[in-house]
């Protein structure tokens, strides 16, 4: 859209929300018919809500527009009329030859024509496309690789044949020729490429996926309550209309002597009059549905999200990264999580690989002091490398996608020119940490990799990438290949196959990541045939995949096995404690990984996902639907027979596909009865399918997915809450997540503390809003019984408008930002407290009913308490002056404002100076405003019914007495109930509050925290707490940096180790 149609489009989107549309209808009704309240009472709050939302959305869209302009208006150079011409990236057309310099982003999908490098290659990173930060090598089209000058490119006459634009990232001429928009040029001075897809036809644009709108459980509950209140509103309006006509059936009330009807009124349609009266009552009672609820919720979510980013416990010093919030709409959902789906590599582990062991020709080796030493021997053994060992090291050193970065790598030249000083000038960049670890290991073993000067191509087998490198040694060609054992071993015919297979399984049981290495010799004729067939298959426009598969099947036969490698991926800090804390909180953890079965199980055991005492069930290597169903039934029977023991389930990708095809219910039954589930050999889309399976199950549990790589994006987007880890696999997961954290251990505080706080805050906010609006409108309904249902309003229109906007809005907003039922330290020490708020318990129908009935009860007390005072005798002044209906309404309104504000004060557990300021300040503001509003004649007001009313009311001692008595009558039963339940039937949270009080943790302490020693602030806090009787001076205290759960917990007061046990 444009700046001109933003307003109509934005209004259309806003009025699609039921509440906004409802208030618009009410406003229009007030404009069209004679209603008891001014249109301003509905129009002003609606205008405020619409304006605030439009400004927020307009600002966000402006930021997006600014970001789009930066991309679309970026300067680029194109070859035109024999020279380089600068233009904007949005002006690039298909067929333009574009120059891209080092560290620039490709502005369109380009076919690489030439590079400044002698071999016609360039290096790029695709972090913005697939999240991988490694360097990838791309090759120029051989026919144009020599065209490195502008004049030669201008004279170039060529035709590019390609398909229509499509989302497939690896067409038209294969990945080595195609430079995709969004990728960045690295370690190459400049390249020239011809644009084949531009704008929205580029592959990046075609791969855009609209993020589905996520809605929290609280928002869904809110909408349900809204419908119930809409039903109450319609009931009250219909009942009032019927009673009005029942009353008017008697002539003395239908047309009293003081209010004679006109001829037009007598002859008007009774049906139209009934509809008009119904709409008038609808307008009179419409404030029972709070429009300001949406504004307050939006503000609470937006402002509350800053607490996550500012929490020092979620800050990672080594990487200098703090937690970030991408979607504030889901804050409270963090307190409702029932299932956590986590990736393994980079999420539970560091994604920092170390070469540990290898198997060569059936013998296990370990690296000791830069030498490969057979198992059981020391490094002082004479160095006598076998031919197989040398060939193995050459294979590992050459068969990879590692790139080298030199200090002065800007100019063209031979990659081997740096060989003499590689130790100081050379740095490896790899497509995966595994490959980097292996190449660095061969370098330590005196077989260093210096650069690429040979043919190379990639191949995908069974969804696993297998890298091939062809090496020419004394005239013959050797093909080295490396990959997962499931991709390599089926094609090997010679070598120590069975021994190597056993070694691979041993490595996997130790938690090592394994790869198998093999090779094949080619004669000159065979190699020439392979090269020709491969070129023809790659440049084919039809059936390219099928033709490539044929060539690869020809290549990948008769392989000779060399050996296998074992690389260790270290566990992240405090992973075991975090998983245990989540389990105690009632959250089930599923690990979804692409690793092989044995490796995944070993890591699950080491990180505490599986316990040693747990009964591990397996659903792996299932070949058919029938076999899978039988195994599932066996597992189900076994779980029922051993129901006392905890069970863990291991399932692989192939078996999962079979289970989800026809046995979904049986599979879900087995999974739900297991304490922990591990899915290995998973493809990215399978991860998302598993999340969707749990999400859509009958129980509708709240799911959370956490991962660090591009392969986790689909899972993160599918879950109710998606969390990205700022790891080493790019930023794709972080960009697509709702929240981002630097380490897995931070998940515990994010859920157990922040999630707990956000949920109790917003749950109380929603319930309280409905409560105070029931208190507000019910007296208006009751008043109609005393005014012949004449639609006379009880409150002044200014009070109607400002009740939700000014008089009662700030206390609940501050409460929803700062409330803490339990200290953060206690929540972390006792994860089981998370169970108290699970299943949306604070917004259950029972709780909702309690708040609604409480609202009606308080409203009856407000109204009839005031009526008892003024019903029979309105001469409450010493001089006998009478009070009128506006004084009665103001008395009810005054009692109501004080009571609903004090009711929130009773609900508040964590008091700060801000709470005190807004609570008592709101009541004071109401009194001051009313004195000014009613004490001055305002020239711009058409009528001023409230002139001197409030002053008169406050000058009556009886009125003051009534206010105090009514407020106490309303709140005293509530205090009794709270005391009774806290002592007779306390919840786990309330018990923790008692412990918290007895150990001396207080809100004042948490506001005065220092790393070491006791500050003046803390001493003052302790003194005040003792004076208030909320702290035991005998409780021993210590101020330390150590925490039972977090080593860098600097935001809360921590207890000594002895006291920590009591928590």
Task: Give the helix/strand layout.
Blueprint: H1 6-14, H2 18-32, H3 39-72, E1 75-80, E2 83-88, E3 97-101, E4 109-115, E5 121-126, H4 127-130, E6 132-139, H5 150-154, E7 178-179, E8 184-186, E9 190-197, H6 203-206, H7 217-247, H8 251-254, H9 263-267, H10 270-285, H11 292-304, H12 306-310, E10 324-325, E11 339-342, E12 349-360, E13 363-368, E14 371-374, H13 387-398, E15 403-405, H14 422-425, E16 427-429, H15 433-444, E17 456-461, E18 464-473, E19 476-483, H16 485-488, E20 492-494, H17 497-509, E21 512-522, H18 524-538, H19 544-555, E22 559-571, H20 575-584, E23 588-592, H21 597-606, E24 615-619, H22 625-641, E25 647-652, H23 653-662, H24 664-672, E26 676-680, H25 684-695, E27 703-707, H26 713-718, E28 721-725, H27 732-735, E29 739-741, H28 746-783, H29 797-807, H30 809-818, H31 824-829, H32 845-870, H33 885-907, H34 913-935, H35 949-954, H36 957-984, H37 988-999, H38 1003-1007, H39 1016-1028, H40 1057-1062
Parallel strand pairs: 11-23, 11-27, 20-22, 23-26, 24-25, 25-26, 27-28, 28-29
Antiparallel strand pairs: 1-2, 1-3, 3-9, 4-7, 4-9, 5-6, 5-8, 10-29, 12-13, 12-22, 13-14, 15-16, 17-18, 18-19, 19-21, 21-22
GO molecular function, one term: ATP binding
Domain P-type ATPase A: 76-151
Binding site for Mg(2+): 343, 345, 708, 712
Q: Give the radius of gyration.
A: 37 Å
The overall average pLDDT, rounded, is 78
In DSSP terms (H or I, runs of 4 or more residues), the helix count works out at: 40
User: Which strand order does the major sheet show?
Assistant: 10-29-28-27-11-23-26-25-24
CATH class of the domain at 317-348 and 571-746: Alpha Beta
The fold-level CATH name of the domain at 317-348 and 571-746 is Rossmann fold
End-to-end Cα distance, whole Å, is: 56 Å
Q: Major beta sheet, specifics?
A: 9 strands, mixed
Question: What do we call the CATH homologous superfamily of the domain at 317-348 and 571-746?
Answer: HAD superfamily/HAD-like
Shape: elongated
Low-confidence stretches: 408-424, 454-468, 1001-1063
| Secondary structure: number of strands | 29
Structural class: alpha/beta
Estimated helix fraction: 40-55%
Strand share of the residues?
Answer: 15-25%
Can you name the CATH architecture of the domain at 317-348 and 571-746?
3-Layer(aba) Sandwich
